Amino acid sequence: MLDTGNFVLYDNDFRITWQSFDHPTDTILPGQFLSTYQELFSSKSESDYSTGRFRLKMQSDSNTWAPPTPGNKTTGNKNQTVIPVLAAGIGGGLAAILVFLLLAYWGVRQHEQVKKRKLKENFFKQNGGIMLQQLEYQNESTVEKAKIYTEEELMKATNNFNEGNVIGQGGYGVVYKGVIADAVFAIKKSKVVDRNQIDQFANEVVILSQITHPNVVKLLGCCLETPVPLLVYEFVTNNTLFHHLHDEGCASSIPWKIATETAEALTHMHSAAVHIIHRDIKSANILLEDGYTAKVSDFGVSRLFSPQETHLATLVQGTFGYIDPEYFHSGILTQKSDLYSFGVVLVELLTGAKVVSFDREEKNRNLSLYFLSAMEDD
């Protein structure tokens, strides 16, 4: 009997004389018999007579059955082998997919980081970073460097520029309170920047960082890797002169030393090696410390003059009510423009009235005109 299920009869020369595949209805040759418990084993093939997979066994009840040959694997064993192999294949496939996804994610992250770094480098150049570094290098032996902060440092300091940290805002930017290494700073985020004035902006940062006058807010550094520059100033604790005059309504208790200290700050800026014209002197830009020490702040529209220059033709900028009328009509900027604005602050201190008020009749809405009119009436 072969593993194919074919019963084969050989002669003495091992030639097939009969096979069951040729006689499908026969199972055992006529006259052939199996004794009880006698076994008939299959051969592996026609040329290999070693014990095959099947055997016939006569039972005591005269029934024959075909148990598998001892030591040979059955179809069931094959199935049992296939299951773990299939599971291992599926697990390996999932692992490969996971590795591919991780590599793809890492590649995307790397691409985004490179893109972000290049964007910051472009902003740094656009905002005058190269010029600033050159100016600081040229003056390395004589000046204190303005610190250049990273965007991450200032975002962390302000809790991602959270609105709860806003301490002031105007037409040119928003000022946030920030904490860096347990020290408190004021961080100004400009709304716009004039790309044509980038070189001057870098020069301005260098110069303003050197002003150490006690009545001028100290510029400590900047961040240039953002769409618009961020400026970092010392933090002044007691709000603005405007707040105390108009929000608190305590003009009578404000010491006049504020006027003296503001005048000293202007004198210092106007007589520096490179003259600084503030262009936006007003009560909201005069900060106060706890002892009412005045600090002139916000140099966002300030301009620099060489000692040889007496005036500069420029676009009119400032705050309505404080702007020098001659500068407003001609566009010619001089130190006198700052002095006019300071004069308006003095009237504001003296009267406690707002510089522009629609509560007054139309001809007196501007405080300067109202004050002059009152002086003439007296």
TrEMBL record:
InterPro entries: Bulb-type_lectin_dom (IPR001480), Bulb-type_lectin_dom_sf (IPR036426), Kinase-like_dom_sf (IPR011009), Prot_kinase_dom (IPR000719), Protein_kinase_ATP_BS (IPR017441), Ser/Thr_kinase_AS (IPR008271), WAK-like (IPR045274)
Any one GO MF annotation of this record: protein serine/threonine kinase activity
Species in which this protein is naturally found: Heracleum sosnowskyi
GO biological process: cell surface receptor signaling pathway
Protein kinase domain ranges (all copies): 161-378
Major place of residence: membrane
Protein known as: cGMP-dependent kinase, Concanavalin A-like lectin/glucanase domain protein
Similarity section: Belongs to the protein kinase superfamily.
